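Entry 12.
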Amino acid sequence: MNLKILEQVFFGNRILDYIISLLTLVLSILFVKVVIRFMIKRLKKFAERTTTKFDDFLIKILEKIGLPALYISCFYVSAKTLKLPSGAGTLINALEMIIITFFAARIVVMLAGWGINTYLVKKQQDPTVVRSLDGMLWAVKILIWVLAIVILLDNLGYKVSTLIAGLGIGGIAVAIAAQALLKDFFSYFSIVFDHPFKIGDFIIIGDFMGTVEYIGIKTTRIRSLGGEQVIFSNTDLTDSRVRNYRLMEKRRVLFRIGVTYQTSLNQLKEIPKIIEQIIKNTKDAAFDRAHFFSYGDFSLIFEVVYFVSSPDYNKYMDIQQEINFAIKEEFEKRGIEFAYPTQTLFVTKQ
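Predicted 3D structure (tokens):
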């Protein structure tokens, strides 16, 4: 009698089929909970003994994506043991495709994030790059999900090419409107990968100068010396000549001084030696040359070149000030006078 109850049919399946389906579900869930979790624990212990971080990342994917996918597969396998109506079967297949696409896209997104936040940051050895890479990771995520949706629609039987063609003039208008945005976007990739400058660098673009504060997908923000924030599109920066002072290992300094025409020849010959000795005695300054450069309109001009072993502007100004004070002191000791604009009027008596 009991066996006859199990043979009774409801919605196209026997009661025995429902029991088998339920047992399949319970046993598969127990298998995932016991066996798979045990394997993950063993893998974690193994990963702790290794120096590489990639195995830790794979275990993270297995926990966040693998386990949920296996649990959903348990329901799918148990449902497949039953005879389902044609509409329900189609719906389950569609849900299966959606779930597979969702988890596959998540895996790709996690791989992209891991690659950007580990490989690129380590390669550039610059923690400030992380702020710039956040925008790039956001754009990569959008691209991955868009591609995943397109692939999903194609697998579900929708003609994606027809859908795109159906956008018609509207799609062309959107593409034209997005042209400038795409140019800035690709310029952003050029800045991040080629890194002509980074956050914190002092740069000069044309008549503008300042410190880079933020590098975004469309714009880069620079804090000028006056205190205001100057915003450039990324395309403007990649199309311009950018002078980056952070990359300057040492600063070359050229300056000129003028003395009066009444200065004697012996004094003129002493001046290059005086300046050379002053610069050599100045800390963090390296003498290059000092020469009697030219005869000016009202002065005899000397040209001096030296190097400061630091790109810091304030340090350069401190050294230049120290040199100027020393030159003034030495010239006063020797009676050498600095020139200033003068005119001499010669009157001839007839």
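Annotation: The chain has three domains: 2-125+137-152, 181-243, 251-334. Residues 2-125+137-152 form one domain.
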